[in-house]
Protein: Alkaline/neutral invertase
Amino acid sequence: MSERKMEAAAVATAPIGGGMRREPSYASMAEQDDFDLSRLLDKPKLNIERQRSFDDRSMSEFSIGGNLKVGMDGYDPVYSPGIRSGFDTPLSSVRNSFDPHPIVAEAWEALRRSVVYFKGQPVGTIAAYDHASEEVLNYDQVFVRDFVPSALAFLMNGEYDIVKFFLLKTLLLQGWEKKIDRFKLGEGVMPASFKVLHDPNRDVDTIAADFGESAIGRVAPVDSGFWWIILLRAYTKSTGDTSLADTAECQKGIRLILSLCLSEGFDTFPTLLCADGCCMIDRRMGVYGYPIEIQALFFMALKSALSMLKHDAQGKELIERIVTRLQALSYHMRSYFWLDFQQLNDIYRFKTEEYSHTAVNKFNVIPDSIPDWVFDFMPCKGGYFIGNVSPARMDFRWFALGNCVAILSSLATPEQSVAIMDLIEERWEELIGDMPLKICYPAIENHEWKIVTGCDPKNTRWSYHNGGSWPVLIWLLTAASIKVGRPQIARRAVDLAESRLLKDGFPEYYDGKLGRYVGKQARKFQTWSIAGYLVAKMLLEDPSHLGMISLEEDRAMKPLLKRSSSWT
Ligand code: GLC
Structure:
């Protein structure tokens, strides 16, 4: 570490109060070339007191009152916290007569083992607690996206603090100056992950965060900010406590994240243009452009923000922009990303080279570019949002996360939501197989794999991001199927997962066409596989939890939707 960095670390230290201790892996993050806390001291907008706050100030210094506004502002708590039992006992199994599967207790224990503390306060969960694995890489960090299912599990179990501290900690990290080489990232960018470093000699904790400058491929996570907003709403909805979301800090955090995405540029589409690897699929997989995962999360974050933004001067202006964008975005997605039998047939018969407003084939998609597999895959009943739409390019692959989030956020119309569930049932073997569920379908192979992934040896066909099966996704499938009124789909999937997850040590992913093999390089005790399973169980056990991660269709949007088709 350079002298300046040492200095910076000293500013950002604090005595610790306990927590998980692992061998520090100072890997790339501590070597961040341009990140220097001490420089921030000079920033006029941050005084010394504020600067301390990055790491040193206790998060409890934020004035979050216990001020519960039950039943107000649409924040009816899903259930009231009630009296806590011992830390080790999942409340959900105590409250109900439900007889938990033996794997539930093991899963809770594993989840608790993954908790990370900063100054004695729980601030997140590490990605994987895999002692057997030689390569730690960055799996010993708290990933924002990975923490979401953990957070939901804790919220559903009435354990709110860890979620609150996580939200506040990441908000402080958002305030850091972020640079890659000499390029400064937007103010609102949230980290992909952070790590708590413990200095045993001085008994101090420091934080290192990765905004993409250490990530493989150097891509900033577009999804982190969206997940942060979605989680803030889940916290608010679950606790009934609006005081956290109401703080000036949280309001500013929301504004910064969304300002990044709502700014006008050269775009002709309301969707968000992204680099490959900027989301859960965090390496080159041909998802660059307008990936469904990001569009669905963007939509959900916008809607979640609407329910939390204050109607003050700054809030009002943003609210107007959000409403306008939501209308355009839902029109675009529902019209152009949607694929069912009829739509496929229409595209198959598209004329090309059409010019002017009367064009039917607006993006000039050449029918010959439709892959063969999709004709067999498309059932008569069912449909889905395809992976990507941009000029002359439709990525017909199915992506699980984007489609489930589309249902949860009501980006999908009620008819589309039903159709997505129909598709899952009709194509059960392909999408669920022996282990729920495929991250995407189908895998890319051979020459296409070489070109698209850059010969990535981890993403070979039916492995990892390339058609691998990810147990974490089961919580999204469960939530979506409950929302559509088809919980039996989730039950079937949970039964499958239950039969193997514990035995296999909660792997990160499975390989193969049916997902029968534990993934080639999958971590064991992957936290979100554990938490995803628990969330699915708790949702099935008490579907009223759904409210914290589901948004209803805004009735006002329907008539407006028609007007927003004006660009045709
Ligand atoms: C992998 C996944 C990414 C996840 C990370 C930590 O890189 O692709 O989505 O956040 O592992 O689990």
About this structure: The first strand starts at residue 115 and ends at 118. The radius of gyration is 23 Å. The mean pLDDT is 83. Residues 127, 143, 145-146, 280, 282 surround alpha-D-glucopyranose (CB under 6 Å).
